[in-house]
């Protein structure tokens, strides 16, 4: 828990009990999680508190949001904890059609995209859909 406290303090965020618990849950998950799924793990917490916690983590570069085509935003820990948009965890995401889980494929980076003059990129997301390794073995 001391390491999580240091990570939050280094980002200029007060390490409240809720922030520590949410960060610990996120860092120990293999797949991305929606706010609704997070609520199930924190039944006695208010949705607004969880939402503010996730949004704070996103603003300081601890988590990133994933639009996986389901219409529900998912969140996952950033591998580099950067707040820079240029170094913003640009990797593939995979959505399994069988188990419905979304995972970060951090070893597979999204290539640099050159846009026409006058266009400015602000965000990029690439989600591959198919059958994950776990479901493919069944």
UniProtKB/TrEMBL annotation:
Alphabetical list of InterPro entries matching this protein: FUR, WH-like_DNA-bd_sf, WH_DNA-bd_sf
SUPFAM superfamilies annotated for this entry?
Winged helix' DNA-binding domain
Provide the cofactor list for this protein. Answer: Zn(2+)
Question: What processes in GO biological process is this protein linked to?
Answer: negative regulation of DNA-templated transcription; regulation of secondary metabolite biosynthetic process
Q: How is the cofactor bound?
A: Binds 1 zinc ion per subunit.
**Keywords assigned by UniProt, alphabetized:** Metal-binding, Zinc
Q: One GO molecular-function annotation for this sequence? A: DNA-binding transcription factor activity
**Binding annotation for Zn(2+):** 96, 99, 132, 135
By its UniProt entry, which PANTHER family does this protein fall under? HYDROGEN PEROXIDE SENSITIVE REPRESSOR (PTHR33202:SF22), ZINC UPTAKE REGULATION PROTEIN (PTHR33202)
According to UniProt, the name of this protein is Transcriptional repressor
Natural source organism: Flagellimonas marinaquae
